[in-house]
């Protein structure tokens, strides 16, 4: 079938609207009419050459409505509302143990441009293959995904809001809920107040952390951070954040520290803010390195660094839980979402990169009627 997609011809090229051919569903495939998709920093990173092949249709924070399913699909039917997350095999040791983001085939399924059967599902009108992303390519009017990609949601929530739960918001909250699992009255610092950072702040408030420090150089975002649960904010533009954290914590440091920036100097400050026996989670998608001394930075003080991909959660459970928190007013992510027409995707990305907008969402189906 013919679809319209935000096509990226080559590394660094801007998004351009293009008509493509999308394969028909078979087996565990699900055809989804896209309503909207969030723009994640990862999309920018991939568009500018992190890891994927080109040409490509990016986008991995999609939400839409099921139109057609393959003969093996049992979880959803046409008309169901779904959020899209990453794909996984469902059969390996890690998937069986409840850690699908550790799937043995995770990279092959999500970053190699083909589906789980090894097929290109996207082609140009001339028949040339086009790589997909995250087994979804949400920047398009329709997606062909696997049953593992989808999270069924109720129809009373505005679908335009829900896509970002599938990556950025699910990542920040999952790092807190599923990995750190802070005890009540714990302390935490979050470096960077984008969507991932805000999700971590709100999750930290939900679990009862007594001290929640948000660090950024954007004063407007820090104001929002206070509204979302931060007990302290630090504008690190002209001061050393690690020194300020030590002052706030009476020179103890924080039980948990999350970095969402991927900036080496910031990651070093973040690590130096961790208390003895504390944990540091670097969450950013980055190709940059930062240096540490394994003895003085980790062994001395029993400190830990933990890698976390997409929150290390089970999306089909975690994302539904986040919606429940949203309904209760505990996870008010809608306050920092800005909608853009699909055709303005390049501007949506630009506004996100400058920090003007915390979470840009492109509305792909402008005929969608949000529930009252």
Could you describe the 3D structure shown?
Keywords: Metal-binding, NAD, Oxidoreductase, Zinc. InterPro entries: ADH-like_C, ADH-like_N, ADH_Zn_CS, ER, GroES-like_sf, NAD(P)-bd_dom_sf. Its cofactor is Zn(2+). By secondary structure, the chain is an alpha/beta fold. The chain folds into two domains: 184 residues, Quinone Oxidoreductase, Chain A, domain 1; 143 residues, NAD(P)-binding Rossmann-like Domain (Rossmann fold, 3-Layer(aba) Sandwich), CATH 3.40.50.720. 28% of the residues lie in helices and 25% in strands. It is built from twelve helices and 18 strands. The strands form three sheets. Strands 3, 5, 6, 9, 10, 17 and 18 form a seven-stranded mixed sheet that branches. A six-stranded parallel sheet has the order 13-12-11-14-15-16, with helices on both faces. It is globular and about 65 Å long. The model has no long low-confidence stretch (mean pLDDT 96).
What is this structure's SSE topology?
Layout: E1 2-8, E2 16-22, E3 29-38, H1 41-47, E4 56-57, E5 62-69, E6 81-84, H2 93-96, H3 106-111, E7 122-124, E8 129-130, E9 142-146, E10 150-153, H4 159-162, H5 168-180, E11 187-191, H6 195-207, E12 211-216, H7 219-228, E13 232-235, H8 241-248, E14 254-259, H9 264-272, E15 274-282, H10 294-299, E16 304-305, H11 315-327, E17 337-341, H12 345-354, E18 359-363
Parallel strand pairs: 11-12, 11-14, 12-13, 14-15, 15-16, 17-18
Antiparallel strand pairs: 1-2, 1-4, 2-7, 3-5, 3-9, 3-18, 5-6, 6-10, 7-8
Helix pairs in contact: 5-6
Cofactor: Zn(2+)
Family: Belongs to the zinc-containing alcohol dehydrogenase family.
Protein name: Aryl-alcohol dehydrogenase
